[in-house]
Amino acid sequence: RSAQRVMRGSSALRAAWRSARGIDGAVRGRDLASSPHVLSLARRMSALIPPGKSLGEVTHVELLEKEDADAIEGIWREYHEGKEGKIGVTVDPNAYARFRDRSTTCPMFVMPLHKSPSQFLTLVAQTKMPYASFTAIDDFRKLQEAATPMLAAAHYPELVESKKLALVQATHVHAGVAGAAEHLTSQEATRLVRLCHMFYADDALFEKFVKPFNHAQKKFDFDALVGEVAKRTWSDEVIQ
C-alpha cells in the first residue's frame, strides 16, 4: 500500500486529481472557492483535531506582545519541541499575505513530499483561511469528503502588524497514531508547510505551478513540480 501512495507519474497524478475534483479534464478556470471539498475543510479536519482558529486559543497573546520578533520565534519553536504530532512555524508577513490572498483564487494544490531522494508522497493541499490541510492523494481520490488530512495547519496573523511575523501551528499524523498507513515526522511536517508557503509566495513558482493547477490544468506539469521540489528539498537548508 505504501508503494501505491508514492506516485511518480504525471498521468497518474492528473487522473487522481480529476477524479478527486469531480470534473472533466476539459473544464478550466472553475471557481473553486465554492467547492464542497473546500467548504467542508474544517469539518473534515475534526478527525485530526486541528489547531485553534485564533492565536488566543493557543497561547497568551499579551505575553508575546511584550517580546521582540526574535524572541517570539524562539519561544514558538521551543513551545512545540517534543510535542508529538504538533509543530510551530513562523512566516514572513509578506509571504503570509501572498499565501492568504492567492489561496482565495487558488485554494487547491498538490505537493510531492520527499521521504527520500527517490520516493515521495503526494498530498492534496486545500486552503480556507485560517486553515490549510494536506491529504494523501489516494485517500482524497477514494474517500473525498470522508478523507482525513495528514496535516492541518492554522495561520495566525495577530502579530503581523506589531512584530512583523505570522505564526503557524500544525497538527499531523505521526508514528504513534495507530493504524496510520503513512505518517509524517516533525521535520517532514515543517518542510511541507514551508514548501506550500514558498510556492504561493514566490511569483515565478506561483505562476508556473499553482495557478495552472487551479485554472489551466493542461499547462500543469507535475514532473516539473517534482523536480523543483526535489531540488529545493535537498539543497535548501530552510526547507530541511
Your description of this structure?
By secondary structure, the chain is of the alpha+beta class. The chain has helices spanning 2-5, 10-21, 36-39, 41-44, 61-64, 69-80, 93-105, 137-143, 160-163, 186-201, 203-215, 222-235; strands spanning 86-91, 108-116, 119-128, 131-136, 151-156, 166-172. The protein has a six-stranded antiparallel sheet with strand order 1-6-5-4-3-2. The longest helix has 16 residues, at 186-201. The radius of gyration is 17 Å and the shape is globular. Residues 1-13 and 19-46 have low confidence and may be disordered.
Topology:
Layout: H1 2-5, H2 10-21, H3 36-39, H4 41-44, H5 61-64, H6 69-80, E1 86-91, H7 93-105, E2 108-116, E3 119-128, E4 131-136, H8 137-143, E5 151-156, H9 160-163, E6 166-172, H10 186-201, H11 203-215, H12 222-235
Antiparallel strand pairs: 1-6, 2-3, 3-4, 4-5, 5-6
Helix pairs in contact: 2-8, 7-10, 10-11
Task: Give a summary of the structure in a few sentences.
45% of the residues lie in helices and 18% in strands. By secondary structure, it is of the alpha+beta class.
Biggest β-sheet strands, sense, barrel:
6 strands, antiparallel
- Taking the alpha carbons of the first and last residues, their distance comes to 26 Å
Residue windows where pLDDT falls under 50 for at least 5 positions: 1-13, 19-46
The outline comes out as: globular
Number of strands: 6
Spatial arrangement of strands, main beta sheet: 1-6-5-4-3-2
Q: Compute the number of helices.
A: 12
Q: Which class best fits the helix and strand makeup?
A: alpha+beta
Helix percentage range: 40-55%
In terms of DSSP E residues, the strand content is 15-25%
Question: Average pLDDT, to the nearest integer?
Answer: 82
Q: How are helices and strands ordered from N to C? A: HHHHHHEHEEEHEHEHHH
Kindly provide the radius of gyration, computed on alpha-carbon positions and rounded to a whole number of angstroms.
17 Å
